[in-house]
Amino acid sequence: MAKYLLLALVTVPFLELYLLVGIGRHLGLLPTLALVVAMGLIGASLARREGLRVVRRWQEAMAQGRPPEEGILSGALVLLAGLLLVLPGILTDVVGLVLLVPAVRRRVAARMRASLERGMRNGSVRVSSYGWGGFRGPGLREAAPTSRLPGEVDAEFTEEKPGR
């Protein structure tokens, strides 16, 4: 996963620059700059509206006592779309706009969920939770112990100063 992220961080800026130069040659400097600024403003507005819609649907579902239809991944994808739309560039704007389409976002979230579940089953993805030392308020309960790999142990280390 890290190698794909690194690859994207290296190649996407070059692709964006290539596209901007090509569009700039075809349209001119000012129209290209206007296009990038307009896409950022429109995208930020759409991301805000879509994010508020997701939150509103979550609240309605919770008020009716049923689980929200759109999960955490969908909300995270709206956040990612907003970030991509604010970044200058044509490629990131297109990906951000596509992620704001609810049908596309649901499909991407379903694929991400399936990938996470597969990774958790085969052990390549592990989920850990950290609590606040024994505090358990109303409605909170202690988490079940996590599964351990063979030979895995919990350990705490302290450093002792010489001469003690």
Automatic annotation (TrEMBL):
Pfam families membership: FxsA
Gene Ontology cellular component terms for the protein in this record: membrane
Domain of life where this protein originates: Bacteria
Transmembrane segments: 29-47, 72-101
Sequence segments annotated as region (Disordered): 143-164
Keywords: Membrane, Transmembrane, Transmembrane helix
NCBIfam families, alphabetized: PRK11463.1-2
Protein name as catalogued: UPF0716 protein FxsA
Protein species of origin: Stigmatella aurantiaca
